[in-house]
Every structure is written in structure tokens, then in C-alpha cells.
Design goal:
Low-confidence stretches: none
Shape: globular
Mean pLDDT: 94
Helix content: 40-55%
Structural class: alpha/beta
Order of helices and strands: EHEHEHEEHEEEEHHEEHHHHH
Length: 328
């Protein structure tokens, strides 16, 4: 069994894949496994990966899987999880990169702490600018209860730091069915995943380890493209709310889930101009329907305590629903 499996999905990233692959080589050990998943790329990415898989196999264990159709990031990660053999697992996106030696330090943290998963800080790379982003948990190097880290509802907490690649996960979580993503989600795929992780895992820790470089501003990234795939965030957060509503602590946790959902809707509405006109209209319609589906008591409390700008956007949608129902 490899000590660590690193699952790396790629899709049309021929410009960035060489940096990603070089960083893997600088982290390689013979007991590490690199799982490279090509999600049906249409550029030169598959050829780059094929050559890299052969070269990396000299210094690590390598598995190279190619999809016969594009399935999105969540599906590609699931493919990697299905073939990964490591005692510990982590992720990396195909346009990001790692600092030399980072993976060995990550494994050392997992071994020393003995918890279900660890979370790390990361560096956001936008062109030449570098910004450190810290996991929003105060205690460092201390084993904690992940369920307790979901709250409070009115602050940024561990479930808001929804980066699967910022940490490592013990294989027992995979065996318990906790690590897979919702198949087919094109965006916000980390959100149902991070909530499930914090509800169902038993222990976690945050460590002062900085080694993941997250590339922002990539033209092909869904965060930069205003097409219909962006609207998958509604499917993702519907899942968060539904699963949280079924939880034994639903009364305590639902306000946080609803508040986060509302904040994301308000964010997308504030950037409506980046969407194609038909998609912008669909965004408004789907957002209004999402507000109607939310637990209304929790929604009312959230709107009363959110900042005025965001709550005003959401109240307008809510009034639109009420008006439409009255007219009908």
C-alpha cells in the first residue's frame, strides 16, 4: 500500500500542467502514488500526461486514467478515489502546484496527529501576486471535533474553507463512504463534500503548513466563465441544506447552511453581468425557487441578521415569489 495517494484531475490545462507535474516530481517518494486523471481534454494535455506518467514512474508509483467523456471535476476526483490505494489521500488540481517537500510534511502531520483529516493553509497565486489564505480555525496542531467546527452560523468557519486540496484524509474515511463527491457537479463540488466531512468524520486538525499554490484568474476556469455550468452551485447547496435538515443536530446547524446558501446566491446576483443574458435570467429564476425551498423560519432569521445590501437582494427575490403566488 502506498503511504499517500495524490489525486490530480486535468482538463484542457496544457499551459499549466507542466508546472503541476514538475511540482509532483519534486515531492516524489517511492511510497507515494500519483493518480493522474484526464477528464477528456481536447488540447495537448493527454500527451503531456502520458509522457509525465512514464517519467514520474521512475521516482513514484503512478496511475494514469483517461475519461472517454468529460464529466467535470467532481467526477474526475471520484475516478481517482476509486483507483487510489494510499493509506492517506489528498488532491491537487491540474493547474495548481506544490512547494518542494510539502507532501512529506503533510504525511508527517497525519502520522503525528492520528486524526481522520488535517487541513492546511494555502497560497493564492494571481498572475505574479501571492496571498496567503489561512484555514479559519484558531487552534493549530490540536485534534478537534469537526462537527463543532461548523458553527457559529454568523462567522466564517471550517466548512467555508471548502478546498479539498488543502489537507489530507485517512483512508478510513474513504472506506466509510465519506470522501466521494456528488457526481457530475460542475462547480461548488467541494461544498456538499466539506459539510459531509465535518458532520461524519470524528476528528481533524489544522496545521501550520504552507505548500499548495492555488492559481486564480485562469481563463478556462469555471470561476471566470459565466455559462450555465456555474448554476450548479444551486444543486450543490440544495444538497447541503437537505442533508443538514436530516441531521440529528439540524436545529443547530441549519441556520449556518441557510446563511451560507443565501450569501452565495447574493454573491452571484451581484456579479450577474458576467453571465450570458439567458443564463442571468435563469440564475434569477433558480435563485428565487431556491429561496422558496429553504426552511422559511431559518431564512427569516438569516435575512434579519445579514448585511443590508445582501438581504435586500434576497428579499426582492422573496417578494417576487410571494407576488407570483398571489397572482396565481
Amino acid at each position: 500500500m502506498p503511504k499517500l495517494s495524490v489525486i490530480v484531475p486535468f482538463y484542457n490545462v496544457q499551459q499549466y500542467a507542466p508546472d503541476t507535474l514538475r511540482s509532483l516530481r519534486r515531492n516524489a517518494r517511492n511510497d507515494f502514488e500519483f493518480v493522474l486523471v484526464d477528464d477528456f481534454s481536447k488540447d495537448g494535455t493527454p500527451d503531456i500526461l502520458e509522457r509525465a506518467a512514464e517519467e514520474l514512474s521512475e521516482v513514484a508509483q503512478v496511475r494514469f486514467v483517461r475519461h472517454e467523456k468529460n464529466g467535470g471535476l467532481a467526477t474526475a476526483r471520484n475516478t481517482g478515489l476509486d483507483v487510489a490505494r494510499g493509506e492517506y489521500l489528498t488532491f491537487l488540481d491540474g493547474d495548481d502546484w506544490l512547494a518542494p517537500g510539502y507532501l512529506s510534511e503533510l504525511v508527517s502531520a497525519m502520522e503525528q496527529l492520528g486524526c481522520d483529516f488535517v487541513r492546511t493553509d494555502h497560497v493564492q497565486a494571481t498572475a505574479r501576486a501571492r496571498t496567503v489564505h489561512r484555514a479559519p480555525v484558531g487552534p493549530r496542531g490540536e485534534v478537534l471535533n469537526p462537527r463543532r467546527a461548523i458553527l457559529p452560523a454568523d462567522r466564517t468557519t471550517s466548512v467555508d474553507y471548502a478546498y479539498a486540496w488543502a489537507g489530507a484524509y485517512h483512508r478510513r474515511l474513504l472506506d466509510r463512504g465519506i470522501l466521494h463527491f456528488t457526481d457530475g457537479l460542475r462547480t461548488a463540488e467541494d461544498r456538499p463534500w466539506i459539510w459531509k466531512l465535518h458532520r461524519e468524520a470524528e476528528s481533524f486538525a489544522v496545521v501550520n503548513l504552507l505548500g499548495v499554490f492555488y492559481r486564480r484568474g485562469v481563463a478556462s476556469s469555471l470561476t471566470q466563465i459565466g455559462d450555465v455550468r456555474q448554476l450548479d452551485f444551486i444543486r450543490a447547496f440544495d444538497q447541503v441544506v437537505q442533508e443538514t435538515a436530516a441531521d440529528q443536530d439540524a436545529e443547530r446547524l441549519l441556520p449556518k447552511a441557510v446563511r451560507t446558501y443565501c450569501a452565495i446566491i447574493a454573491h452571484h446576483l451581484s456579479e450577474e453581468s458576467k453571465f450570458e443574458p439567458a443564463v442571468a435570467k435563469q440564475l434569477r429564476t433558480m435563485s428565487a425557487a431556491a429561496i422558496r425551498r429553504m426552511p422559511q423560519d431559518a431564512l427569516g432569521d438569516v435575512l434579519d441578521t445579514m448585511d443590508l445590501n445582501r438581504s435586500a437582494k434576497l428579499r426582492r427575490l422573496r417578494r417576487r415569489i410571494t407576488t407570483a403566488k398571489a397572482a396565481a
